[in-house]
Design brief:
The structure is a single chain. This protein is of the alpha/beta class. The protein has a single domain, classed as NAD(P)-binding Rossmann-like Domain (Rossmann fold), CATH 3.40.50. The protein has 10 helices and 13 strands. Helix 1 crosses helix 5 and helix 6 packs parallel to helix 10.
């Protein structure tokens, strides 16, 4: 397989809507290929690679921002009405641009609860949470946009500065046990690098409009927390049963425990040939520790 079937070059220009954890990491990653990568901000700042986009306040990018744009990645969540802010404000502008590719970061929450069973792209979405229902609505908006769209469904995201290690060091960790509960996760580097891999190989891989990006080993939260404490040389705190923890968890925090599923990455890693950098939480947290110590 030719890994440079459609190589990224300094002629490619990315607009990344939503300059958060994943968007910023992707922008830095794609710039290594010589591409231009600009990220949106909700308000003015001093970042030369930033442009303003705030649909709530009707702050729309200048027309010049779209000059020679080739790729779009949207990391922006649905608005309060469940609509996609980028499409709502900029659909016609995107359609009039000569785009090679458009990506949208969604959530594996659209699959809903499977009581710990595996979910894959061919499974019918069955979102339980309202926020996941809104995400599925945005997926449909993108699918129906007639743009060259790929949707990426993501589980829990972690990486340098945003991992279990940081939560432990900041004393923001609660060790909660719920029988047979598992979570899937993915390192932010694998989000960026798998998307870049798919773009680079767009001419010699079968195009899939929806792809899960997750590591190989869904597991309980306690396993991850225990390993984090081991890496930091700290004793494990007391384990709290979920029924007891519910008394002080916010509704948002509780909602993550209502659903139980394992996210399959077989399409991405077996059929499409992407090789994970961080195949499980152990190698991922090892890397996060190295970043802390440096």
């Amino acid at each position: 397989m030719n890994n440079l079937a459609s190589p990224l070059t300094n002629k490619d220009k990315f607009l990344i809507f939503g300059g958060g954890f994943s968007g910023d990491y992707f922008a830095k990653s794609v710039r290594k290929f010589g591409c231009t990568a600009l990220t949106s901000s909700r308000s003015k700042n001093n970042d030369p690679y930033s442009f303003i986009f705030n649909s709530d306040n009707n702050l729309i990018p200048k027309d010049s921002i779209f000059n020679e744009v080739t790729h779009i990645l949207s990391c922006i969540p649905p608005d309060k009405n469940g609509n996609d802010p980028v499409l709502k404000s900029l659909k016609n502008k995107l359609k009039n641009s000569s785009l090679k590719w458009v990506g949208y970061l969604s959530t594996t929450g659209v699959y809903g609860n499977t009581n710990g069973d595996w979910v894959a792209e061919e499974d019918q979405p069955n979102p339980f949470q309202e926020r996941s229902q809104r995400r599925l609505n945005c997926e449909k908006e993108w699918t129906n946009s007639n743009l060259p769209i790929q949707i990426f469904r993501l589980p829990g995201i972690y990486g340098p500065g945003r991992s279990t290690l940081d939560a432990i060091r900041n004393r923001k960790i609660k060790v909660i046990h719920k029988e047979n509960q598992v979570f899937s996760r993915v390192h932010v580097a694998d989000i960026a690098n798998s998307i870049i891999y798919l773009i680079q190989n767009i001419n010699n891989l079968n195009f899939h409009p929806i792809i899960n990006i997750a590591d190989d080993e869904p597991c309980s939260q306690i396993e991850v927390i225990r390993y984090g404490h081991k890496l930091l040389g700290l004793p494990m705190p007391k384990i709290i049963l979920f029924e007891e923890a519910k008394k002080y968890l916010s509704p948002m925090a509780q909602s993550f425990w209502i659903e139980n599923r394992k996210v399959s990455n077989k399409l991405l890693c077996e059929k499409l040939g992407y090789k994970l950098i961080y195949k499980n939480y152990k190698v991922g947290l090892d890397s996060c520790l190295t970043a802390i110590n440096n």
